[in-house]
Write a structure and sequence with these properties.
Helix content is 62%, strand content 2%. By secondary structure, it is mainly α. It has a two-stranded antiparallel sheet.
Length: 191
């Protein structure tokens, strides 16, 4: 039996609230919806997302693309959609909040959760920087900030991997987390 077919996953309409965390939550729910309904193609995810927009944000999407979700004669990539939606849902007043969130970023649980939190912050930061014409943090600063937020035991392993990009650091952190926090196998029997 296919559990996903029996799973009733709903996705609420997104109204375009100017709250970066509501955008994150809705995009997370959208990803869950796509997984549950086995929607994997980028253009298909964008189409599903477009269908679930309402109010001013739907009007924004119509202005941003043609009525079928096509921009510049090609279907909008899902990653581009997420970036643009995040940008459209922010205003310049969120800049201070985003900087405060940055100062709080630290690994407190599994590396995968920290990676996801850092990615979400990075998406909001880039969107806000575009809106305010602010300078972007360099890749080196972002990489250093990500590394600094890792738990010490994980950071040591990631530094040994010498990641040159954020993606490489994300991957190394998840790998290191699996090494550091994998419980040793229990021995059975006696000697």
């Amino acid at each position: 039996a296919n559990v996903l077919k029996d799973l009733k996953v709903k996705l609420d309409k997104f109204l375009g609230r100017t709250d970066p965390k509501s955008v994150d939550t809705w995009l997370d729910n959208l990803e869950d919806y796509c997984v549950a309904h086995t929607i994997a193609a980028s253009a298909d995810k964008t189409f599903v997302a477009q269908y679930h927009l309402d109010g001013e944000i739907k009007d924004w999407f119509k202005l941003f693309t043609d009525s079928t979700g096509v921009k510049n004669n090609k279907a909008m990539d899902f990653d581009e959609f997420k970036r643009e939606l995040t940008k459209a849902s922010l205003d310049s007043t969120h800049s201070d909040d985003i900087k405060k969130d940055f100062a709080k970023l630290a690994q407190t649980g599994p590396a995968a959760k920290y990676v996801e939190a850092f990615r979400k912050w990075h998406l909001r930061y880039n969107a806000c920087a575009e809106l305010t014409n602010a300078n972007y943090y360099s890749d080196a600063i972002l990489l250093d900030a990500f590394m600094t937020g890792l738990k010490k035991e994980v950071r040591v392993h990631v530094k040994m991997a010498k990641p040159a990009t954020l993606q490489a650091a994300y991957d190394a952190a998840k790998d290191a987390d699996a090494i550091v926090y994998t419980p040793p196998a229990r021995q059975t029997g006696g000697a």
